[in-house]
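Lab notebook page, bench 4
Experiment: in silico fold of construct C2
Operator: M.H.
Input chain length: 79 residues
Purpose: comparison with the prior construct
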Amino acid sequence: MIIRNDINRSDRSSRTEGLIKNADDSVDLYFGPEAPKGKGNNWIQTNEGQSFFVYLRLYGPEKAYFDQTVKMNKIQKIK
């Protein structure tokens, strides 16, 4: 386990059942001690006062990744 938390889950993937997708098929992920209302399937629990890291694993990336036409947004703090 990469992170120890109350829900014993440290990741989300494109194969995650119930993952909430945007109209353009992109996905918003949420990191924090508590899930945003209605976004629990896209939430990764962090531990209050502890640091964490984020990484992206791609299996068989396609041309859009290499030519950078698909951009990864920076993580933004929301309240």
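Observations: Strands lie at 30-32, 43-45. The first strand starts at residue 30 and ends at 32.
Next step: discuss at group meeting.
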